[in-house]
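Researcher: Please generate the 3D structure of the following complex. Treat every line as part of one assembly.
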Amino acid sequence: MINKLITKIQKTNAPIVVGLDPMMKFVPEYIKQAAFAEYGETLEGAAEAIWQYNKGIVDAIYDLVPAVKPQIAMYEQFGIPGLVAFKKTVDYCKEKDLVVIGDVKRGDIGSTSEAYAVGHLGKVQVGSKMFAGFDEDFATVNPYLGSDGIKPFTKVCLEEKKGIFVLVKTSNPSSGEFQDRLIDGKPLYEHMGEKVAAWGAECMPESGNYSYVGAVVGATYPEQGKILSKVMPNTFILVPGYGAAGGEGADLAHFFNEDGLGAIINSSRGIIAAYQQEAYASYGEKNYADASRAAVIAMREDIASALQNR
Amino acid sequence: MINKLITKIQKTNAPIVVGLDPMMKFVPEYIKQAAFAEYGETLEGAAEAIWQYNKGIVDAIYDLVPAVKPQIAMYEQFGIPGLVAFKKTVDYCKEKDLVVIGDVKRGDIGSTSEAYAVGHLGKVQVGSKMFAGFDEDFATVNPYLGSDGIKPFTKVCLEEKKGIFVLVKTSNPSSGEFQDRLIDGKPLYEHMGEKVAAWGAECMPESGNYSYVGAVVGATYPEQGKILSKVMPNTFILVPGYGAAGGEGADLAHFFNEDGLGAIINSSRGIIAAYQQEAYASYGEKNYADASRAAVIAMREDIASALQNR
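Model: Done. Output below.
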């Protein structure tokens, strides 16, 4: 799946993943009204609204980008109906041949981590049959519990040729509280990067330079990104925090390797709620998906020029 | 909710939480057969089997213990039907007046962490109405992302008078890979403990000594537990790793404060799959729930004697 992601990045010339993180305040009124007319102001109504909103965006951008990253929390907040909308979104994006990165940030130990890995990337046994629960292509994973939490995921990745992105240095302001603390003279995130490289070394595809074990490093920390892409040369980096979250195009060059690969930049509200920004306001809420398409094209150009000027 | 937990611990004389972590290999054959006869070998069939299995255990133990801890991964592996079984289990345990600790180990930043907090502990707005998605009483939270990840949870805890347990020192063999690393001469878990105490200080109930912010510290690390219960004197500690996972009664005394409170010990397979152990094999699979009841009583006595002999 890492090689599919790379092929699609090269084909679209867009190392971009669109974060499908639907918040109700992003969803155009007409979509909400139609959903509430059908299901009432209920969890089912909210789930229908975010699903229809997502579908509009995916239809408008699927030919431009290699991947999407639905943030499961935004669905989980609406309980079971929300998670049904998550699953519908994953399935629909796969139909459109998009690579789906489930931003689930799961992480536990032993049989519990195995259950998460099976549920999101693999297949679970029921009697004599096997079923995929959510069936994303990649999942994000929290590594605080150490190798016991990661190994069950890498096992499933090898079986299914899928992948994970391990949190290394997150994009938020307080990420340094623990991640930047020095251990033997090196920040924790660097130790984490070394571990990610080691886990990845045991998890290489049959061909290609990048392992099934990726890393998350925030766009808001370009200097750390520079160090980490050297510590983890065979690790694809998922970079959140572009645009609305503070990072800028020029900051991103550091995350890429000499081959122009090695990173994929996420934008969520900057794309999906583009119509609510001044720059794209002229589209109006009826054309919210066209505004998203225009925002993807602008982002692609911003990244291309950052890579050219490095 | 922390005060309800304490009152129930005192009433039952059992600082015990039963981990409802159903694996298919624990579920008696006759329950699986009945579920598969109704729903086939499907995700729905698996979900029905774990729900019926859970219900039997809860009916047998609800008067003996203050709380249960369903591990969501074990449900999530069965996709949407599995999560429906999780929700049914949470609701049923609450009907039985059990305190429900959702072992979800969620953790993200900003609006995303807020969505998890709202989904598991609070209420989400849909138009003019509010709905609870999963509605557990407590949730476990992963702190690798720092305060940005925790604060949205504590906000909801204050509003709803609910609580969280933050991972500090986990019970697994590799938990030391990061958690034990020394930072300024102190292991990371101790820094984490200090943070938990600080977050908790801003999150005290109107009465009582224990904050809404608890901690997870594994029974397998009694010496660390001793230190941490001093670092976090107003923090309730959720202690996994008892019994099947390696910890023993005598190790547990360290986790409790002078008042005999401050900790609640989890056992999962040791209780729910008791009938598969030699000690309880005579119950047979038809009486699996009675075996669980006997295992709870034995555990209660083991802990009481550990507390008496300290």
